[in-house]
Amino acid sequence: MRGDRREFWVAKLKAFGAHLAISAVVFATVVGVAMWRFYPPLYFWIDGGMFVLTVAAGVDVALGPSFTLVLYAPRRRSNRLVLPAIAIAQAAALTWGVHLMYQQRPLFAAYVGYPRREFFPVTGSLIADSPRPLGELLALSPERPALVYVSQPQDLQQARAELQSEHTLARTDRYLPLAGKQLQEVLDAGRARNHIEALFPGNMPAVQKFIDEHGGKFENYAFVPLAARYGVALLAFRRNDGHYVGGIPLHLG
């Protein structure tokens, strides 16, 4: 009797292990491609890529094999129904995960002047009802995500009131390219060294490493914050021509 029970659990664990391995490979392949397409490395860490990945992995990789461990019974005819049902549930979970990544992918980094003077990621779901075609908006910038300027009232009180009364980032009718006076405003928003040291302590080595890799001195760049859902980064622009150089994820706390 003990031998039969041991064989029963060995078969269950083998089925669980095989299912877990297959699920991990499929998940890593499908979601890896989706993350590569939808989340540039900088945004993966600070704007939800890691969060979505964790949730999708928990649902798809952990839940499916767990169902197999609980429901699979060696040499039972019911397996013909149970295993396909688990596979269908997993496929649905994986599809949901990829769809969530697509909906939450950052399409733009939008600069808001008064009173923030920062960039903010804009997801596809946020501008789903945009009055302007997506292609027209993406054409405003060669970067991906596209870097755009959100036109705001010049009166500080009115700008603050708008930020409180409506979602400024969803106002795609106000999106402008970073050029001319808009670009100059972004460059003027570059934070001073002591400001970065005070607000983001411990991050100057990362900033200096970035400068060493791209050449020049701190003063040659305008470092403007990008405030995302799960973190902050600095976007770097060359001051002499306004060219976007890259981003630096910051460690907080």
Distance between the termini: 57 Å
Determine the number of helices (DSSP H or I, runs of at least 4 residues).
9
Q: Helix-strand pattern, N to C?
A: HHHHEEHEHEHHHEEE
* Low-confidence runs: none
Mean pLDDT: 86
**Structural category:** alpha+beta
Percentage of residues in helical conformation? 40-55%
Care to describe what's here?
A hairpin with a 5-residue loop joins strand 6 (232-238) and strand 7 (244-249). The chain is α+β, with helices and mostly antiparallel strands. 53% of the residues lie in helices and 16% in strands. It folds into two domains: 2-103, no CATH class; 107-249, no CATH class. The chain has helices spanning 2-38, 41-46, 49-71, 79-103, 134-138, 156-165, 180-188, 193-199, 204-214; strands at residues 106-112, 118-123, 146-150, 175-177, 221-227, 232-238, 244-249. The protein is elongated, with a radius of gyration of 24 Å.
What is this structure, in a nutshell?
The protein has 253 residues and is of the alpha+beta class.
Helix-strand layout with pairing:
Blueprint: H1 2-38, H2 41-46, H3 49-71, H4 79-103, E1 106-112, E2 118-123, H5 134-138, E3 146-150, H6 156-165, E4 175-177, H7 180-188, H8 193-199, H9 204-214, E5 221-227, E6 232-238, E7 244-249
Parallel strand pairs: 1-3
Antiparallel strand pairs: 1-2, 3-4, 5-6, 6-7
